[in-house]
Specification:
The complex is a heterodimer of chains A (479) and B (95).
Chain A: E1 3-14, E2 51-52, H1 53-65, E3 69-70, E4 77-80, E5 90-93, E6 100-101, E7 104-109, E8 112-125, E9 129-131, E10 138-142, E11 149-155, H2 162-178, E12 191-201, E13 211-216, H3 219-238, E14 246-251, E15 256-262, E16 272-273, H4 284-293, H5 298-309, H6 313-319, H7 323-335, H8 340-358, H9 369-380, H10 386-398, H11 405-412, H12 420-433, H13 435-442, H14 446-459, H15 466-478
Parallel strand pairs in A: 13-14
Antiparallel strand pairs in A: 1-11, 1-12, 3-6, 4-5, 4-16, 6-8, 7-8, 8-11, 9-10, 12-13, 14-15
Helix pairs in contact in A: 1-4, 2-3, 5-6, 7-8, 7-9, 9-10, 12-14, 12-15, 13-14, 14-15
Chain B: H1 5-14, H2 21-42, E1 62-63, H3 73-77, E2 83-84, E3 87-91
Antiparallel strand pairs in B: 2-3
The chains are: A alpha+beta (479), B mainly alpha (95).
C-alpha cells in the first residue's frame, strides 16, 4: 500500500524582549541560576502579572508578516499542571482568542512551491529549567527562564514529507529573525519544534491517529525524527496493528522516538481565562503602526531578485535566507547594477565559503559590499581574471592595502594583458622558439595547439586572457 | 449535568488535593448544588450577548519593555527549604 505522511508543527519562538512577559526581570541568556527570577516569576503570594508591550508588539509583527488576523480582544488563560519548574501551578498562555489567527507561509521544496496554512500563534510564558544531575538524589530548579515570552506558532496539518516540514520550519526561522522578533538561536532554545505526525493510505481523506514528537532542537533532528516516526507507524499498520495517540521523545543518540506519555496519562489542563489579566485590546492604529515598521519580507525580495536581477529561484532563495545576507547582496549590486549574477555567485561562493571557514557572520565580514563591488568591477571589465580575483579577495580579507582592490591588483601586478599588439609579440616569440609544435599542428595534431597556448600563457605569467590568446594564435598559425 | 464521585476524585487528583471518602461525598453534594445553579442559568437566552472573559469591563494596561527588577535571589532563597549552587532543590522529578 502507498502511504501518505501528514505533519503539523508547533514552534515555540522566544521573543527578543529585554524583560519578561509579565515582570520586569531580565531575559538575558546565561546568567547565574535564579538571579533573573523576580517575585512574580517565582510566584510569591500576592504578586500580579503586568503584560509587556514589547511582547505584544512582536506578536502583532509576526501576525502581519504571515497575513494573519490580529484578534482584538485577545484573552489570556491559565493552563494548569504541576511541575516544579512551574511555580504558580499554571502557565499563563492563551486558549480562546489567541493574538494571531490564521495566516500562511510559502515554502519551496525542490522546484515546487507550496502554501502552509497556520492555525494560530499565541503568547505565553516559558517555564523554568530542571536539572536532574548530582544533587544528592534531588532535582535543582533554575527559574531564570520562567516568564520568558514565547510565541507558540501552530500550523495546520499541511505538510506531507519531512522535507516539507523542514522547509516550513526554516521559512519560519528566517521570518522571525528577519522581522527581529526572535534571535532564532536553536542551541540556546530560542526556537524549538514539536511535530505531530500521522500516516494514512494515499488517497484517503480522514487523518490517521497522530503522535506528537517533542525535543526537536535542530532541523536535522526534525527531519530524522519524522522519518523514523513515519516508518514506525507504517510498520505497525502493515502488521495489522493500530497507532496509540501519545507524546513521544526523539532520542538523537539512537535516532529513534520513544513513548514519553500516553493519552491516558495526558494532561487535562483545565484552561480558564486568567482573572489576573484583563482582555487585551489592540487598536487599528497600533496595528498600522507596526505594519509601517515591517521590513520588506523575504518572499517579496526573492520575487524582486528573480524579476529585476534575473536570478534563479535557487540563488534568490539562498540570498534571502537571512536579512543580513540579502542586504549585503543588495549593497554590492547597487555599485554594479548590471552584474547581479556575478555578485550573487561571489557572495554564495567565495564570501560564504570564507565566512563558514572562519565561523563568522556576514555582518562581521572584513570585505564589505562596496569593496567586493570594486573587485568584481575589475573582473567584469576584464582587468583581472576570475582566478586572480580570488587571490585579490584573499588579500582584501587580510586587510592588505586597506582592502582596496585596485591597489592590490597594482601591487601584485595582476592586471591582465589585453593589448592585442603585446600578445601578438609574445606569440611570435613562442612560435619561433617551438618550430616542432608548429609543424605538428600543421601536420594535423590538435594537441600541439594546446601546448602552444600553454607556452603563451606561461610567457605572460597567466595574465593574458586565454580566449584572446586562442583567437590570435589561431590567426597567426593560418598566416 | 450530574457529577459522579469519580469526577470529584479525578478533579481532586488533578488539583493535588487529598480528600477522604467522606469528604469526597460531601464535596460531591456541594459541587452538584453549584451545577444545579448553572443549569438554571443555562435556561437564560444568551445568543445575543457577547461572552465575557473578565468580571470587570476594562482593558489590559501594558508595561514598557524595560528591566526593572534586580537580583534578590538570596532574599527569596532564605525561606526555601533547600538550596544549592543557587538552585532550589526539590524531590527528584523525571518525566
Amino acid at each position: 500500500m502507498q502511504w501518505e505522511i501528514v505533519i503539523g508543527l508547533e514552534i515555540h519562538a522566544q521573543l527578543s524582549t529585554q524583560s519578561k512577559i509579565f515582570s520586569g526581570a531580565s531575559t538575558a541568556y546565561g546568567a547565574q541560576p535564579n538571579t533573573q527570577a523576580c517575585a512574580v516569576d517565582i510566584a510569591l503570594p500576592g504578586v500580579l502579572p503586568v503584560l509587556n508591550y514589547g511582547a505584544v508588539e512582536r506578536a502583532i509583527k509576526f501576525g502581519l508578516a504571515i497575513g494573519a488576523k490580529i484578534n482584538s480582544p485577545s484573552i489570556f488563560a491559565r493552563k494548569n499542571y504541576f511541575y516544579p519548574d512551574l511555580p504558580k501551578g499554571y502557565q499563563i498562555s492563551q486558549f480562546e482568542l489567541p493574538i494571531v489567527q490564521g495566516g500562511s507561509v510559502k515554502i519551496q521544496v525542490g522546484d515546487s512551491e507550496k502554501i502552509v496554512r497556520l492555525t494560530r500563534a499565541h503568547l505565553e510564558e516559558d517555564a523554568g529549567k530542571s536539572l536532574h544531575e548530582e544533587f544528592h538524589g534531588m532535582s535543582g530548579i533554575d527559574l531564570n527562564r520562567a516568564g520568558t515570552p514565547l510565541l507558540e506558532i501552530v500550523s495546520e496539518p499541511d505538510m506531507r514529507s519531512s522535507a516539507e516540514a523542514v522547509a516550513y520550519a526554516k521559512a519560519l526561522h528566517t521570518l522571525v529573525r528577519w522581522t527581529g522578533i526572535c534571535d532564532g538561536n536553536m542551541q540556546e532554545g530560542s526556537f524549538r519544534c514539536d511535530a505531530n505526525v500521522s500516516v494514512r493510505p494515499r488517497g484517503t481523506e480522514t487523518f490517521g491517529t497522530r503522535c506528537e514528537i517533542k525535543n526537536l532542537n535542530s532541523f536535522r533532528f526534525l527531519e530524522k525524527a519524522i522519518d523514523f516516526e513515519a516508518r514506525r507507524q507504517i510498520e505497525i499498520l502493515e502488521d495489522g496493528g493500530s497507532i496509540t495517540q501519545e507524546t513521544r521523545l526523539y532520542d538523537a543518540s539512537r535516532d529513534e522516538t520513544r513513548t514519553m506519555r500516553s493519552k491516558e496519562e495526558a494532561h487535562d489542563y483545565r484552561y480558564f481565562p486568567d482573572p489576573d489579566l484583563l482582555p487585551l485590546e489592540i487598536s487599528r492604529e497600533w496595528i498600522e503602526q507596526v505594519r509601517a515598521m515591517l521590513p520588506e519580507l523575504p518572499e517579496a525580495r526573492r520575487h524582486r531578485y528573480i524579476q529585476d536581477f534575473g536570478l534563479t529561484v535557487y540563488d534568490a532563495s539562498v540570498l534571502t535566507a537571512a536579512r543580513e545576507i540579502a542586504d549585503y547582496f543588495e549593497n554590492t549590486v547597487k555599485q554594479l547594477p548590471t552584474q547581479a549574477k556575478l555578485c550573487a555567485n561571489w557572495i554564495m561562493g567565495e564570501v560564504s565559503g570564507r565566512l563558514n571557514k572562519e565561523n563568522i557572520e556576514i555582518t562581521q565580514c572584513p570585505v564589505g559590499p562596496k569593496q567586493l563591488a570594486e573587485l568584481l568591477m575589475r573582473v567584469s571589465d576584464g582587468t583581472i581574471s576570475g582566478k586572480s580575483a580570488k587571490d585579490v579577495f584573499d588579500s582584501m580579507w587580510q586587510g592588505e592595502h586597506s582592502g582596496n582592490a585596485d591597489a592590490i591588483i597594482a601591487a601584485k601586478g595582476l592586471k591582465q594583458i589585453s593589448d592585442d599588439g603585446e600578445i601578438e609579440k609574445l606569440i611570435d616569440q613562442v612560435l619561433a622558439a617551438h618550430p616542432q609544435q608548429v609543424a605538428d599542428y600543421h601536420g594535423g595534431k590538435e594537441k600541439a595547439f594546446n601546448s602552444l597556448v600553454g607556452q603563451v600563457m606561461k610567457a605572460t605569467k597567466g595574465k593574458a586572457n586565454p580566449g584572446q590568446v586562442n583567437m590570435i594564435l589561431k590567426k597567426k598559425l593560418l598566416e | 449535568m450530574t457529577l459522579s464521585l469519580d469526577d470529584v476524585k479525578r478533579v481532586a487528583n488533578l488539583a493535588r488535593i487529598e480528600i477522604s471518602e467522606d469528604e469526597a461525598q460531601q464535596v460531591l453534594m456541594q459541587l452538584s448544588g453549584i451545577f444545579d445553579l448553572i443549569e438554571q442559568m443555562q435556561a437564560i437566552e444568551t445568543s445575543n450577548i457577547e461572552p465575557m472573559s473578565h468580571a470587570q469591563d476594562m482593558i489590559q494596561r501594558l508595561r514598557e519593555d524595560v528591566v526593572t527588577e534586580s537580583d534578590q535571589h538570596m532574599l527569596f532563597q532564605a525561606i526555601a527549604p533547600q538550596v544549592e549552587a543557587g538552585l532550589y532543590l526539590v524531590p527528584k522529578v523525571i518525566e
